[in-house]
Structure formats: C-alpha cells, structure tokens
Amino acid sequence: MAETEQTDPDAFRAEARAWLEANFPPALKNAGPPRVDENEVPTPDRELWRKRMGEKGWGVPTWPTQYGGGGLSPEQSRIVQQELARLGAYNPIGGMGVMMFGPTLLEYGTPEQKARHIPPIVRADIRWCQGFSEPGAGSDLASLQTKAEDKGDHWLVNGQKVWTSGAQWADWCFCLVRTDATRKHAGISFVIFDMKTPGVEVRPIRLISGASPFCETFLTDVKVPKANLVGPLNGGWDVAKRLLQHERTSISGGSAASGSAPGGSLKDLAERYVGVDADGRIADADLRLRILNNEMEARIFQQTALRIMLEAKSNAGPSLASSILKNAGTRVGQERAELAVEIMGHQGLGWEGDSFSPGELQVGRALLYTKAFTIYGGSQEVQSNIISKRVLGLPDPPGAA
Amino acid sequence: MAALTEEQVMLRDAARDWAREKSPVSALRRVRDADLPLGFDPAAWKAMAEMGWPGVLIPEEYGGSAFGYLSLGQILEETGRTLTASPLISTALAVASALMLGGTTEQQAAWLPRIAAGEAIGALAVDEGPRHAPDSIALAATSASDGWTLSGTKTFVLDGMAADIFVVAARTSGPAGQAQGVSLFLVPADAAGVSRKRLKLLDSRGVAQVTFEGTPVGRDALLGPLGGGAPLLEQVLDRARAGVCAEMLGAALQAFETTVDYLKVRVQFGQPIGSFQALQHRAARMFMELELARSAVEAALQAIDAGSPEVPELVSLAKAKMGDTLHLVSNEMIQMHGGIGMTDAHDAGFYLKRARVAEATYGSQSFHKERYARLTGL
To answer: Is A247 designated active site?
Structure first.
C-alpha cells in the first residue's frame, strides 16, 4: 500500500477505478447509503460492499495502514471519492466512529487503544455513540455533571446524557465525565465504554420529524476500566474540542449536501412540480431566484471546502476559514430543505400514506429534521461566539465565563 | 487564501507594503480634494509602472512578466484595501487582455510594450446606458472606403479621462440586442471626432462619457473578428470583472478589519462595544461571508489562468457574491462606527462610496445572478 504513495495520479486513478469496478455490487448503483436513523436489516449486497471496503481500508482512505486504513494521500483520497461518485457508489464505512471518534483517537489514544478500537471502525463492524450533552449542559457543554469516581481499578460513572445519537444501536460510547468537581473545563475527562456494561440504559427520544435518532442515556453505577481513559485525566476538554472540530467538519459537508430532494436537483424538481415559462425558466420568479441563490451558495460552499483542504495541505495546519464551515454548510442545507418542500407544494407536506411518494414524504421529514443542523455539534450561535473570540479576538461578553 | 507561488507571494507583499506606505486612503482623499481630472494620481501610477504591475499579464517578449490573473489579483486585492485609484484594471487587465486575446501581432507589438512600461493607458468602452448591458451594443461602425466610421456615445468608461487608447465595442451590422454584428476596435484617444466628458461619481475616480462623431478607423483598427466580437468582448469583460472582484475583496477585508478594530476600542456602557453579542454575531457573519467570497474570487481567477470552460459562470458567481459581501460590509462599517462613520473625516464613507461603484462596475449582483442562471440552465 505504501507503494501507491509513489505512483502518479493517473496510474492511481486507473488502479482505483479497476478495483472499485470489480468490487462494487452493481445492484447498489445510485442506491445511496442506508438510512442511519432506521435499524433496517442490510441486504447481502450492502453487507458485501461494506466488508470489501472495510478490508481495503478505503472507507477511511487517509488513515494509517497500520490500523487497517487506506494509507492514501489527500490527493489519492480525492481520486477514490471521485471514482466512487463516477460509479454511483456510496462509501459504506461511516458513522461517528469514522467522522469523529476515530480521528480523535488516532491523535490522543494510546497504542493499545488504537490497536483495539481503530480496526473495527475501519471495517464498520461496531458503531459508536457520543455521550456529551446533558439535560443541563447543551451549548454550555462544559457545565456537564455526569461524574466518574476513582474506585482504584475502575471509574464509577453516574449521570445522564441526552441527544445521544444512535445510542439504541451503538456498541460503544465515547463520553465526557466530570472527574474534578472544583474546576469547570479542567475537571472533565474523556472515557469510552461498552454500551452493554451494566447500568447503561437507553431511551429513544421522538423528534418532530417522527424519527428517533437521538436518545436519553442513563448511567447508573457504570464501571469503566481505567484503561478506557482517552487523553490525560482532567484533560478531556481538549480531546473533546478536537473531536467537535471533526464533528463540525462532517456536519457542514453533510448538511450542505443534504436536504436535497430525491431524484435530482432543485431545478429538476421545480421543473416537474412548478413548471416552466415560455423561456424554459421556472415559472415562479421569486422561487426561481431563491433556488438560484441556494445553488450559488452551495457552489461557493464547495469551493470553500476545497480551498480549505488545499490550504491545510500547503500550510500544514487548519486555516481560519474552517471556523465558518458549519454555519455556512448548514445555511445551505436548511434552505435547500425548505425550498424542496416549497417546490412540491402540498405534495411535499405529506406526513404518511400512499397518496405521497416515498421521495415526497422524505422531503417533508427532511424539512423538520434539518432544523437540528444549527443546534447540534455546537449551535449556530456557539459557532459565532467561537469566531468572535478565537478568530476576531473580540472581548468576552459582559458576565461570560 | 489560495496556495500561492513564490512570485505571487512576492508580488502580494510588495503591493501590500507599497499600498500601506505610499497609497493609504488619505491618498484617495487627496485625489478627491485636489479634484484631479484623471481620477488618480499620475505619480502613483508611475510608481506602479516602475514595479512592473501594468505588465503582469503581458508576455515577456512585450516587456511584461506573464505572471497571470491570480497574480494580478494579489496586487489588486492589496491596492483595493487602501482604495488606491489607478487605471490598473482598465489598462493592465481589460485592454491588455483584449489585445492578448484578440489582437493581431501588429496590434500587440504596437500597444503591449507601451502598456507594460506604463506609457499608455487603455480603457474599455462598452456601455451606452445607465446599466451594464454588453448585449445591447448600438454604437454604429459604418463601412467606409478605408475602414469604418464610428458614431455614437459610450458612457461610464473606466479611466476614460486618462486613456490613450480605447477598445470600443461597436456594431458593424444587425440590430442592437443581437450578438452577431458586434465588432471591437482599437481607437486612439486623439483620433478625429473623439471627445470626452468627465462623469464625477461617488468614488472620485476618472470615469468618462466618450463620444465618437464620425471617427474614422482603418482596417488595422479591427480587434478580433468582424461582426463576431461579442464572444471576445465577454472574455475581456470576464477578465476585467475578476480583477474588480479582487479589488473589492481587498476593500471589503480592510473595511471589515478596520471595523473589528474599532469594536475593540470604542467603549460604551463601560465596555468595549465589541463585547456585545449583538455586534459579535454580525461580525462573525461578515467573516463568514468574506471567507466564502474569497473562495469564489480565487476560483474565478484560477479558472482564467487554467483556461477553464467554466470561466463565465465562475466569474459571475464571484462578482455576485463579492458584490453582496462588499455591500454588507460597507454598510456595517458605517453602522458599527456610529456617528463618526458618517463624517467625511473618517474613512468609512470612502469604502461605502467605492463599494457602490464597484458593485455596479461590469454588472451588478442582479446582472450576474441572472447570467449565472442562464449559463447553468436555471
């Protein structure tokens, strides 16, 4: 695999294309990834595709081969993504392990922790969930109260987490706990535990969209082995901040692309549901302009994501521009979801029933679900605070900690 | 910002130092107060020429450095920060591009070396009405024994007061509104029947209305194909637009940074006003829009350098986004400065005035949104 570092891009593209064509089950062309908020049983084709990509390591193309990753350069990784898109193939390796926990563990984990937990993430064998938010700790995350007491050979964890995405399907949890009650940020530690540990209880929360992708997670006398501390004791806040950066990056990219209607672009949708005028334009001038604005902003968002990636490569560090990605991406995605519903008129407002196509129902649910984009992963307002303080150097607001 | 080459970094740093030290906003204030007829300070233009800036796009054989559009964008971004008035865009970008894209060897040899040396100033004469409308060229070029005769008026010609040579879009056949029949001509400012009138705009630059009254031009004045000049004109305009975008980016960045600095020092209610979240979040939003705009502007300049077929849509994307962003930032600069921002003694007004003129230059936001829609089939 290290050999691919040396090959030129065209040769690598040919190699990637050949492998993907030989291994991607054609029946899955344009099928898209399985819905994460439903516990559907995967088809044999989906299982096969997951296994093959997991073994190849290309689900996480830039992760080190030592732990089963692809070991590719960012440029090669982009080629793999382009070739996936060309085939109409999705990346079957995803979830919080890939987006958030894996990159963080690669940075902060011990060799033992990495050797144990990274390979199953690479293969998508186990699912991770995030125990961060609490009923009293939302945007003010560092006020969390779930406590971990040192019991010699283990931590004893008690408390309640909320908005634990996918907890009902998760195998493991990465979790912030309070290990020092006398200090706010500096009293937080980052631990991981098996969701089957006695004392872990999960209750799904029904959302306005009707789905239950989030849960309440109750932790009662949960014993966490000492070896499951990630990063230093009371140093969990730094680990969490890094993880949240990964989370924001994935949310921004995902949400800019989501909310889009099934069956193509907003333009295609509008031509079908709204119709066109004599000049072939969408026959509702106001709607057309708003679709246009969204398309333009979506394209500029993509240009920005690309620019940030290239800058990170050339400057060997994240650029300041990355701080805007979440707010910029969610703005595009939420607006897209609103537009899709508006284009479809009443057909986009169906809740259930056979008078509506699955695509129409999906659009209505997406409108509701995408409202979460600007709340989770650090709300839109928290993002603005971060830019104000860290990037612009503006002083703390009166009364702020 | 984009990954820059060593030359580009050097150009940018040199432009930044020069603009800060030799051409701060007070220089534009002097141009305005002295009512300089050309709309810029000839000494400043001479200094720019000595640094080789007019020749950044021009091939080395004609005395330029051929560094490309992203490179010229670096200079324009820095001079834009201090609102430096100069004929750089009309001469080094628009007219030089017209000659490079459509000129004969003779035309190039006659004008490019003079432009590169800063000895000739060029201006692009396109519009004939209050709004940018390159699809509505009507100025008549009637066939004559030895060439053509130009009759008509061009308006809002950037640096038209200083120009030695005009690139004039005229109609050699067909009705206004039709792409076919547009031809470009190289017309020296001292040609017979050429007169110009200064149009004093908000931003104090040297814009002119140029009238051609039976101006004779020879066959060698035709720039590009006869009757097929519309696509060439669009190419030239797109390059000029991308340059205006780079200048607008610089102006918006400086307006924003000046405003954020003020938020940190202005105290009210016993606090720096920058500690108030109502202002912080508006500042954060401006930062976001500026980063997005930079992506669009750099992508347009890079596309031109790469010869991409997507140049027209990427330029319109950039001009629309940059226009909206400069509009926002120039308004917020005044609002966040409060009363002091309304005074002529403060720089904020200069940014607002330049912003509105630059937004309208070579197509406003609405012009470019509509063009983007048309180009992408919306």
So the answer is: yes
